[in-house]
Structures are given as C-alpha cells and as structure tokens.
Amino acid sequence: MELKNITYDMEIQTAANQAQDGLTSRFTLTQLEQVVRIGAGEDLQVVIQDDLTSLDSFTAIAEGSEVVD
C-alpha cells in the first residue's frame, strides 16, 4: 500500500498458468516539485526497504534532461 500511495498509473499485470501476478507503476520527482541534479561521476541510488528476495525480476528506469548552467 505504501508504494501505491506514492506512485501513479499502477496496474496489476495478471499472469497466466498459475504464475504470480505482478505490477507496474510510475513515480516522478516532478510530481513532488523536486529536482535532482547529478554531477559528473555521481550516481542516482534508490533504496527499497523491503524483502524482495521472492521477485523474479525488478526493473527501474531513470530518465532525465541535461541542464547547462
């Protein structure tokens, strides 16, 4: 439920043949009116505080724009 509260476009992906269902959702910092600036040699890290050991796969995509000051 916590993930559902901070994301949007959440959809349950129904699996077939007794496989476990999955989900997709989106989260953007612009909805929170926040900007993240990452400098050269820096990384973007996402911390998930949950037991994800039963997942078959987990994919996160980070997109952004280049800003010239």
Could you characterize the architecture of this molecule?
The protein is mainly beta and 69 residues long. The chain has a domain at 2-32. It is 7% helix and 16% strand. The chain is built from one helix and two strands. It has one helix at residues 2-6; strands spanning 8-13, 22-26. It is elongated and about 55 Å long.
Broad structural category? mainly beta
Q: How many alpha or pi helices?
A: 1
Mean pLDDT reading = 78
- The SSE string, one letter per element, is HEE
Please give the alpha-carbon distance between the first and last residues: 39 Å
Cα-atom radius of gyration = 16 Å
Low-confidence stretches: none
Strand segment count: 2
Throw out a few tags for this protein.
single chain; 69 residues; mainly beta; two-stranded antiparallel sheet; 1 helix
